[in-house]
Automatic annotation (TrEMBL):
Described function: IGPS catalyzes the conversion of PRFAR and glutamine to IGP, AICAR and glutamate. The HisF subunit catalyzes the cyclization activity that produces IGP and AICAR from PRFAR using the ammonia provided by the HisH subunit.
GO BP annotation list: L-histidine biosynthetic process
Annotated pathway: Amino-acid biosynthesis; L-histidine biosynthesis; L-histidine from 5-phospho-alpha-D-ribose 1-diphosphate: step 5/9
Domain of life: Bacteria
Protein name: Imidazole glycerol phosphate synthase subunit HisF
């Protein structure tokens, strides 16, 4: 089971808020990522949350800087609009590229990325909220500011058909609340698709991550609990192991028993 710290980057700094609002500074992205690498993170995810056409190069620069300090696989997202943008991120050092708003506007971006670089490099990230009326979830764009009205499950089914190799399911309702992942969302997507699911939004501790795995997630992503020192990656892995969930141990952990 993969433990993945998520670093939302705004203006070169890591930030974290609640329900996509009230952002707090959490540090330098490369320094934090290197720390999490040393602590045993399985992967790292960077999101340039305010990327625009003019600032796409900032994400490439982040990818290059991370390549010097981070030795676990990492994903870069933000401002990716074309297959050439994906190529730039991968050439800069990223192992995977995350697409979100641009893929909704141009679903062929997923096909193009999978065909050129392989499905394993294409991560479809989706920001969702529960519908105000009736069951289900809707897809939001532009950092959660625009409701598309699209059914989230249907969009992910299409994403798998087009070649996405992984999903990041970010519950906007739970984001930053530390009240637990949206388990109904995870299980609903797991029932309809076969792509590995990264649970995102709401992690408050190891018990929430264990519940997400049991609901169908193949990896768990968290930000606040790591950035602000509430839990270490080692503590999360220990709790998972106690619950019978296999995790990757670092060489230092193995040697220390």
């Amino acid at each position: 089971m993969r433990i993945i710290p998520c670093l939302d980057v705004d203006g070169g700094r890591v930030v974290k808020g609640t329900n996509f609002k009230n952002l707090r500074d959490a540090g330098d992205p490369v320094e934090l990522a290197a720390l999490y690498d040393r602590e045993g993170a399985d992967e790292i995810v960077f999101y340039d949350i305010t990327a625009s056409h003019e600032r796409r190069e900032t994400a490439s620069a982040l990818a290059r800087a991370a390549a010097e300090e981070v030795f676990v696989p990492y994903t870069i997202g933000g401002g990716v609009r074309t297959a050439d943008d994906m190529r730039a991120m991968l050439r800069a050092g990223a192992d995977k590229v995350s697409v979100n708003s641009a893929a909704v506007r141009d679903p062929g971006l997923i096909d193009a990325g999978a065909e050129r670089f392989g499905a394993q490099c294409v991560v479809l990230s989706v920001d969702v909220k529960r519908k105000e009326e009736g069951p289900g979830w809707e897809v939001y764009l532009n950092g959660g500011r625009l409701n598309t009205g699209m059914d989230a499950i249907g969009w992910l089914v299409e994403g798998e058909r087009r070649g996405a190799g992984e999903f990041v399911l970010n519950s906007m309702d739970a984001d930053g609340t530390e009240s637990g992942y949206d388990l109904d969302l995870i299980s609903s997507v797991a029932e309809k698709t076969s792509v590995p699911i990264v649970a995102s939004g709401g992690a408050g501790g190891p018990e929430h991550m264990i519940s997400a795995v049991r609901a169908g997630a193949g990896a768990v992503l968290a930000a606040s609990i790591f950035h602000f020192g509430e839990y270490s990656i080692a503590q999360v892995k220990e709790e998972m192991e106690r619950s019978g969930i296999p995790v990757r141990r670092t060489e230092a952990e193995v040697q220390s028993g």
